[in-house]
Design brief:
The protein has four helices and seven strands; from the N terminus they run H-H-H-E-E-H-E-E-E-E-E. With about 150 residues, it is an alpha/beta fold. The chain has one domain: Roll (Nuclear Transport Factor 2, Chain: A). The longest helix has 14 residues.
Length: about 150
């Protein structure tokens, strides 16, 4: 990780989430990994893929994805948030498309778990799965935050 990345701080889980999805869209591995907690108990599950444990395995999984050269467009919606003083859980729909591909794909169901540490809020778990049925999926009139 670059020295500059170690100085990054995310004052809220929303800041960490925004940084994660911005880095994902740009294909910026260093910025994406700066959001992750530096903890060997981190977990990442890609849609329809394997579970990666530990920061090294997670870095390699994203590196391989970005090395495909595909440029991703990512939009999130239907975010449900549960926050406590040290842990935040966001359940959301992730809409991913590949630049230049007009195929409409169903949203992905995603859970992001953030923990508060010395560098602010950081990603501990990112789990994304294909949605079995998009009719009425996680539809709620407005996102809500539970404190």
């Amino acid at each position: 990780m670059s020295p500059a990345a170690n100085l990054l701080s995310y004052p809220t889980p929303d800041d960490a989430e925004q940084a994660f999805y911005d880095a994902f869209t740009r294909g910026d591995l260093e910025a994406l990994m700066a959001v992750w907690a530096e903890d060997e108990e981190t977990v990442c599950v890609h849609p329809g893929g394997s579970r990666f444990n530990g920061i090294g395995a997670i870095r390699e999984s994203w590196k391989q994805l970005f090395e495909t050269g595909m440029k991703f467009q990512v939009r999130i919606s239907n975010v449900l948030k549960t926050h406590s003083a040290l842990v935040a859980v966001h359940s959301l729909l992730q809409h991913v498309s590949v630049e230049g591909d007009d195929t409409i794909t169903p949203p992905l169901i995603t859970t992001n778990v953030y923990m508060r540490g010395p560098r602010g809020w950081q990603l501990l778990v990112h789990h994304t799965s294909p949605a079995p049925d998009t009719n009425g999926l996680m539809m709620q009139e407005s996102p809500r935050t539970v404190h």
